[in-house]
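seq as requested:
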Amino acid sequence: MPLTAKAAEHLREYIRVYHNNSSKESYLFSTTIKGVTDRMSIGNVQWIIKKYAAQVNEAGINLPSSVYCHMFPRTRATNLYQDGIAIELVSAVLGHARTETTKNYYAKPSVEQLRETMESVPTPASDEAPMWEGNEDEMARFCGLR
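struct tokens:
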């Protein structure tokens, strides 16, 4: 996923603070355990995300009970789609080879989009008689009520 200008600014600052004297071969995100520095594990990233999610929840901002790494790109992609960005562009941002992948997992319409869609369809004319009038028994049978 491409970085926004703001994210790139944060990353530059992180590198300046934590990697000012590092070699090019050092990991961008690392941990030191028992004196051995290695790349940060997925489990460690997950632990950090859960730690800060708990702090956010304590501050009164409701997050889902289970927060995980993939929520970040998924939430961003869903928000882009719901804000009217074409699914092909969302797919490109995510780096998906197939737009179908994006459609299946990220293109979830918001309640507002569903409402707008439903309201965009013309409603039947008010002078139109319901088709079940005079045939209530047949309609009830059709609906499984009798």
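The helical segments are 5-18, 42-58, 71-82, 87-94, 99-105, 111-120, 136-142.
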